[in-house]
Amino acid sequence: MKYIPTIGLEIHAELKTTTKMFCNSKNDPDEKRPNINICPICMAHPGTLPTINKDAVKKVIQVGLAIDGTIADYSEFDRKNYFYPDIPKAYQLSQYEFPLVSGGKINGVAITRIHLEEDTARSSHTTHEDDSYVDFNRAGVPLMELVTEPEIHTAEQAGAFGRELQLLLRTLKVSDAHMQKGEMRVEVNISLSKGNQLGTKVEIKNLNSFRAVERSIAFEIERQTELLEKGEGIVQETRGWDENKGITFSQRVKEEAADYRYFPDPDLPKMKISEIPEFDREILLQSMPELPNAKRERLKNEFALPDGAVEIYVHDTELYDLFAGTVNEIKGDDALTGDMHKVTSLVSNYVINNVSALRQENADESEGGAGSESPVTDAIDDKEDKDVDQNTQNTADIRRITPKALKDIVLLAHSGDISSNGAVELIGLVLNGTHFDEIRTLADEKGLLQDNDEETLNALVEGILSENEDVVEEYKGGKTQLLQFLVGQGMKKSKGSANPAKIKELLIQKIG
Fold first, then answer.
1. Residue 221 forms part of a structural domain
2. Is the predicted pLDDT of residue 364 greater than 70, yes or no?
3. Is 140 or 496 the better-scoring residue by pLDDT?
4. What is the mean pLDDT of residues 84-99?
5. How far is Cα 155 from Cα 169, in angstroms, rounded to an integer?
6. Looking at the domain assignment, is residue 407 inside a domain?
7. Average pLDDT, the chain
8. Are 190 and 215 within 8 A, CB to CB?
9. Domain at 471, CATH number
């Protein structure tokens, strides 16, 4: 019988608040200078008293509502006692018995609990000397911890769960969740068994990308399977992940569960959630943005978009705003009512295949790096590995192309006044800051307008047919591929100004 992996995840996410969890020191993940955003409270000076950050509590409740979890009516903070250099107080303020959220689901995976705590400081260790350094800028930053039920069974399912959670956090604007910045960190608990009874649990700590999550799980399944097939036992331990070697490694053996001696913090008030007006369920639900699954359904139903396009728009608000804004502009044109599906698809193709690609090229040039091969990959896969927020990169560039400008380009292409290549060239010109008053004027200035005059094209086609009588006879004899040759001759004679679709149409009509 094949061994069945059973996986549970513990995911920490730093919350996007102005100040830290229990003091008014700035919460700034981008601060590079050490020990700048600190105060006597987050440094645990004697006599100082913490104050609960209401915004952090609100953000966790919003996550709970978004996943259809149960919001606690009563909650409190506990002291989790352990000593480590990055814990100034020698205990961490966390939640034990009364988490803010219980239950709910993400990607079909049941959630055990979501609670709120404070982050630790950041330690760094030198390799050439025996010194270690601690930066307390991060100490006390609001940290949400989400724990899943142990019902994940594959590496891919774990990765998909993490990506969906990251998307939800960003949609709610409760966390930027950049993994390489440490704003989102994943721990994996995994065991293998052949029956319903769980095997010995192994923990993999501090995974900072979804690829690392998937690769470490795949490795650990293989490692544990080999041990079990040899008749050897699995050691309950904490393991780390070596990205370069692609292996997990033992960090410490867990002979028994750690005793953190939790007890309620006497310096912080208990929270009766229903008595706090800002946490009213209906008020929070009304302020909730459109959630990812609801957006997916709407995009499919309203625009009949393929799944790949839907995922891009769900993950990338810049591209979605441009797409939706352009479609709304076009909806006002009564002449296109019958062609809306076709025009909508055209808009989406230009946004995803051209605007997105040109934006990425600009990003690569500014960073001196190489581009991704796929706009789809850029939009939805492992953004956290590059430490880039797709919603803010090159904002000035993409904002140069307004929905009105893209609408004008799309309509010129749809009517045949410009070719598809001409539309792409116009998009590039606008994104790169070319000045223009009207899109049609810009197309004319750049020689991109196609000749659709029927009298001119008729004369052109008559000339092509008289000059290529042998080719026409071969075409009539069954060599239908020669039609493209004749179209090419028309484009050559018109110096690229004629509409090739019109030439093709007239050729077919006249040849019969």
1. yes
2. no
3. 140
4. 94
5. 21
6. yes
7. 89
8. no
9. 1.10.10.410
Residues 389 and 385: their CA atoms lie apart, in Å, by 11
Q: How is 389-413 classified by DSSP, letter by letter? A: -TTTTTHHHHHTS-HHHHHHHHHHH
The CA distance from 247 to 243, in Å, is: 7
Distance of CA 148 to the CA centre of its chain: 21
Same domain, 35 and 11: yes
**Inter-helix orientation angle 403-415/340-350, to 10°:** 120
CA-CA distance, 389 to 86, in Å (whole number)?
28
- 68 three-state secondary structure: coil
Q: Measure Cα distances from 171 to 51, 177, 210, 211, 453 in Å.
A: 28, 11, 18, 22, 49
Please report where in the chains the tokens 């808009």 appear, as a residue.
347
Angular region, 89: left φ>0, alpha ψ -120 to 50, beta rest: alpha
Q: Per the structure block, which two tokens stand in for 323?
A: 């797409």
Q: Is the pLDDT of residue 218 over 90?
A: yes
Beta strand segments in 382-480, E: none
pLDDT tens for each residue of 142-177: 999 999 999 999 999 999 999 999 999 999 999 999
Maximum C-alpha span of the chain: 100
Give SS3 for 357.
helix
Domain housing 400:
292-445
